[in-house]
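G., before I forget:
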Amino acid sequence: MATAPSSPRDVRPGPRPVAPAGATSPSFPDMQPEAISYWLEGVWIAAAAVVVGALAAFWRAAHPGQFGWLLPACLLAGGLLQTTLSYLVPHLVRSRRHISGPKGVDVALRRSEERYRALVLASAQVVWTTPPDGLVDDMPMWRDYTGQTLEQVRGWGWLNAIHPDDRERTAAIWKNAVATGGLYETEYRVRRADGQYRHFSIRGVPVLEDDGSIREWVGICTDIHEHKQIEDELHKQAALLNLAHDAILVRDLARKIVYWNQGAEETYGWSAKEAAGRAVHELLRTESATPLPSVEAAVQEQGEWEGELQHVTRDGKTIIVASRWSLQRDHHGVPRNILEINRDITERKQLEDSLRQRTRELENSVAELEAFSYSVSHDLRAPLRSIDGFSQILLEDYRDKVDAEGQDCLRRIRKASQNMGQLIDALLQLSRVMRADLVREPVNLSVLALSTAAVVQKAAPGRKVQFHIANGLVARGDRRLLGVVLQNLLQNAWKFTARNPEPLIEFGSTQKEGKTAYYVRDNGIGFDMAYVDKLFTPFERLHAKEQFEGTGIGLATVQRIVKRHGGRVWAEGALGKGATFYFSLD
Amino acid sequence: MQSTSILLIEDNPDHEALTIRALKKAHVMNEIVVAHDGAEALQLLGIDGKPEDAPISAPQLVLLDLKLPKVDGLEVLRRMRENSRTKLVPVVVLTSSDEEADVITSYRLGANSYVRKPVDFMEFLEATRQLGLYWLVLNEAPRAVKAAAGR
């Protein structure tokens, strides 16, 4: 019986030897000894007949009339001898061939069988015939392939060599083909002799008699296992490609679409069937900043291209895609197709555009704000200088013509214009804090506090205030803005300790909620915690202006700066018991 | 042509009057020539037009406001520094603006000082006194400027 190859590879068509070495020559020389032996057989039989005939003639001549029974007896003996010899001689010949080496008929037969079987396995094709009723008599090649015996294959037995899942369907198709006399065409898995199931494609046709009745069925089973596996793999890959939301399409060098994934269907609206064979740029009405011929040339030259394209979808919507092209070559290296992966970025583009526009608007308003601030700084202060300057001139040059009350008026005018000047300056500082770039670097707050305290002290040399400033406090932040923070806090403390005979201002750090908090503490008039929220609101004042100078903007500025550093500012205090202002940075 | 004139470039007549008063109060005796906009300043300095017609091609000191009609103060400064006669003349920017950008640009273009005009006239008087003392008395100008001024 057929011995199946040990691995599926062995049945692949190829140049591998399928018969024992040295026996690959055509069959004629192998057949020669066989012809000779049959000829010898003939000679033996002829010689025996001649001998018996001669003996009979001799006996008749020697004993005429005496042995009338002899001729028939001799003929009988000759016949017996002939029969015996004809039986014996081939046996003799055959036994002689057994010892005559590999050139013997037996070997030749076996080789022929082996060759045939190898051919079945190598060609991966099984040819079969059945009677008109479809009930199998024998399928030798099938038996060789599957290892089924004649008994096993007969009738419907062959079905048992088919994968259980395919049996019912196959039986139905075969029954139907036999019943209608039509083409028999199907695929199923066949169990090879080694037990492996392999995919086969089957085709069978009825051979008709002259009267149109079916004489027999002939057909061929073809091993399509490898194709099937590749196909499955391709299906899997195609399924993966379909998972991608990107439009993936392949078009040949004539720009005809040959592949179109689900993403492409979703993006453009045409189904794969509708897109197949269409000219890609005509279908999608491709527009490109770089002329398409240069894009195609670039792909041919460099193997790939990346850029943005404009396409029009089936419903006439114009979309922008980020497109990546790559050249696909066949295994000879000849360019065959171009793979395009297109991602719809229309929305992103629109977002980018609106973002750009908003940024532009913001930049414009920042520029306007800057122009406004500049104008405030320059133009609003200019009249104040005139008011103050000419009031002073009146006070100096016309002192004798303006009485005491008039001079008091002039002094009030000067005071008001100076206050307004300060207010403008404070507002400017606040607006600068908002728009200044934040440059973070390590800043020694202790040093900064010391120099600020010196400036504050210098502005009012008459007052004696004790400063306690902790050493070595370093924070990361914008040096200039942190300077503004300390300046405002220290100035505040300075201002509100004016009535304390032993004013003390401290600067230090502490831990609050796991973060470093810096503080400025004073023993001034303090404030009512009920109004703590108002402290940081611009222009809000907790004290009458007559009592304490100030613009009402300083703490608002401090808060803005601290917030820009990602930190927090808060205050603790009580009326008459001083105040502490804390700030953390990031 | 005065050898030790001061060119005040100022468009606001109030400020012009106040500055001149402050200079007088600070006992600055130099002649004060006023240009009311940038274009006039460039002509007075002989940068635009014929140099020989310029009354003060090289003043001893220029007090320059930045926000000016026609040609702004920074442009005047730039043109002065490009011109060989006015290249070394001390320029004090005297302006209402304390915008960082203005300060930086002024120094970059070669300003010698930058003073922000205070609202308080008394402060302005003090600033002017110090400026006069420094630029007209203490400061040693390069010979080239002295020579040009003494022409």
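Residues 232 and 431 of chain A are 68 Å apart (CA to CA). Residues 1-31, 93-101 of chain A have pLDDT under 50 and may be disordered.

More on Monday.
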